[in-house]
Amino acid sequence: MRLPMIAGNWKMNTTVSEAVELVSQVRKGLSGAYDVEVVVCPPFVSLVPVKEALKGTSIKLGAQNIYFEEKGAYTGEISPVMLVSLCEHVIIGHSERRQYFGDSNDVVNKKMGAALEAGLKPILCVGEKLEENEAGKTNDIVTGQLRSALAGLDCSGELVVAYEPIWAIGTGRAAHGKQVNDTIRIIRSTLAELYGQQMADEARVLYGGSVTADNIAEFMEQSEIDGALVGGASLKADQFTNIIRQTEEIFFPNNPPTKDLIPW
Ligand code: PGA
């Protein structure tokens, strides 16, 4: 069974003190031994203080981006080797990076290679635009992004893919659970083609796009969806912890109530 993951993508939100406050509230709200893997991805400047604030918990930390070179004259950039001692995960290929910062499929592929080589665990984002969706091109776009992001890479280790239809991100218009499930089935069969069935069975594929505490259950009840990449709702501790609790209950219905579990 794949371990469910709920990851919070804070994007360009929170000052350092707000980030510490937010994660402290999340920590309090989750005072149980969760079987869901929880990841928070604050802005770079908050990675160190948030890491401090998470000490003694099993909440993991992720970055939102990297550059693909190891070091050098790349003003303003952060390399994977700088991050590997600070965090475990990194989001790569988010549609906002593709749209506003020119992260082409080729750049995404280089970033994936650099992350894997440095020992960071990528959360690779793929997803189609509204017009592509309406033209019935979702599967082609998503599998094309996946193939080019992974081209030439040995991805036999842990891979997390986040399927995020662009039209669902930040719009309040989430996709339908069933449709997402079908697309993720295609993603998994592409992974099987590339790396074999075992890797495809073990890779986690998340859904992202307007996930809230009100709609999380619809996604988590689908067989192929292993968790969520949450943007806006991850900035509200009560929403985010509620999303995690519901995920826990759906994946592990026989677990004792979390309030009875050993606190972190
Ligand atoms: P959203 O963002 O939950 O605010 O739609 C998701 C994402 O961009 O990862």
Which terms summarize this structure?
11 helices, TIM Barrel, eight-stranded parallel beta barrel, single chain, 264 residues, disordered C terminus, binds 2-phosphoglycolic acid, alpha/beta
As laid out across the biggest beta sheet, the strand order is: 1-2-3-4-5-6-7-8
Provide the list of bound ligands, each named once.
2-phosphoglycolic acid
- Helices and strands, in N-to-C order? EHEHEHEHHEHHEHHEHEH
Taken from the alpha-carbon principal axes, the silhouette is globular
SS summary, helix count: 11
CATH architecture: Alpha-Beta Barrel
Report the strand count: 8
Q: What structural class do the secondary elements suggest?
A: alpha/beta
CATH superfamily heading: Aldolase class I
Largest sheet features: 8 strands, parallel, barrel
Task: Provide mean pLDDT, rounded.
Answer: 94
Distance between the termini: 24 Å
β-strand amount = 5-15%
- Please write the CATH class name: Alpha Beta
Percentage of residues assigned to helices? 40-55%
- Radius of gyration computed on alpha carbons: 17 Å
The total number of structural domains is 1
Query: Low-confidence stretches at least 5 residues in length (pLDDT < 50)?
Result: 259-264
Q: If you consult CATH, what is the topology?
A: TIM Barrel
What does this structure look like?
It is a single chain. This protein has 264 residues and is an alpha/beta fold. Helices cover 41% and strands 14% of the residues. The chain has eleven helices and eight strands. Helix 1 runs parallel beside helix 11. The longest helix is centred in the last third of the chain and has 19 residues. The two termini are 24 Å apart. The chain binds 2-phosphoglycolic acid. The site of 2-phosphoglycolic acid (PGA) has 13 residues, from strand 8.
